[in-house]
């Protein structure tokens, strides 16, 4: 390596992200996981699809109208975690701060986000405890029964005093590594901040992507389900990638 290449190549990183999740019951954990995938899909679209189209436009190359545009994953990211309310996370934070019930949280979601892009209406019988997000990989219904309590990042009463009485805690504090007792930031807010920082880092680098596919829904050995694979290819924007 020369000094020039060494200066340009600050690091080589590998990001291994959990896959998109959709179960019979989907909770806050699934929303966070799917939000992460949605954010990274937006990064992929910008780095591969949008950037390539910009190059075509700059060079005067006409792209056929039959070529599909990449899915607008940014709209889903904004629905979940927009910096300016309302968003799913901002409404959830308000519910956590005010110690509101999950039913009230779900009602607030439907009142504030009805008609928004990527926010779909559940069946009428499920509207009291369910909301639906139309992700790039498919619509997912989330059940709000434990969202508010899981989102709270408050330190349990008495735990702070217990930790401060601990010699191990005092030792960590001496090295500036003591846990934060404030607990002001919610789980969703912290996660959204971390994802913005991660995506900002990825946007500042040159990325290569490896897309992983399940050969079948049952995870059976030696079974190739064409419909299963095709739906994943479409969801990940692979046909658009091949077009450009």
UniProtKB/TrEMBL annotation:
The keyword Cell inner membrane does not apply. Keywords: Actin-binding, ATP-binding, Motor protein, Myosin, Nucleotide-binding. GO terms for biological process: actin filament organization. Residues 1-244 form the Myosin motor domain. Residues 195-217 are annotated as: Actin-binding. GO terms for cellular component: cytoplasm; membrane; myosin complex. The keyword Transmembrane does not apply. InterPro entries: Kinesin_motor_dom_sf, Myosin_head_motor_dom-like, P-loop_NTPase. GO terms for molecular function: actin filament binding; ATP binding; microfilament motor activity. It comes from Aureococcus anophagefferens. It holds the Pfam family Myosin_head. Belongs to the TRAFAC class myosin-kinesin ATPase superfamily. Myosin family. This is Myosin motor domain-containing protein.
């Amino acid at each position: 390596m020369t000094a020039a290449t060494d200066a340009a190549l600050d690091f080589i990183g590998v990001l291994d992200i959990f896959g998109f999740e959709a179960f019979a019951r989907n909770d806050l954990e699934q929303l966070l996981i799917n939000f992460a995938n949605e954010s990274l899909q937006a990064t992929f679209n910008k780095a591969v699809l949008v950037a390539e189209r910009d190059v075509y436009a700059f060079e005067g190359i006409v792209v056929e109208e039959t070529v599909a545009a990449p899915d607008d994953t940014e709209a889903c990211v904004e629905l979940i975690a927009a910096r300016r309310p309302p968003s799913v996370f901002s409404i959830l934070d308000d519910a956590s701060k005010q110690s509101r019930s999950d039913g009230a949280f779900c009602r607030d979601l439907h009142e504030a986000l009805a008609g928004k892009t990527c926010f779909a209406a559940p069946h009428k019988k499920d509207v009291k405890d369910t909301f639906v997000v139309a992700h790039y990989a498919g619509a997912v219904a989330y059940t709000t029964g434990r969202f508010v309590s899981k989102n709270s990042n408050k330190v349990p009463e008495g735990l702070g005093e217990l930790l401060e009485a601990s010699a191990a805690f005092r030792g960590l504090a001496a090295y500036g590594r003591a846990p934060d007792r404030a607990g002001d930031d919610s789980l969703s807010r912290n996660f959204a901040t971390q994802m913005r920082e991660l995506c900002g880092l990825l946007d500042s680098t040159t990325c290569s992507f490896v897309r992983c596919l399940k050969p079948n829904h049952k995870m059976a050995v030696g079974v190739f389900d064409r419909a299963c694979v095709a739906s994943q290819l479409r969801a990940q924007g692979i046909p658009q990638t091949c077009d450009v």
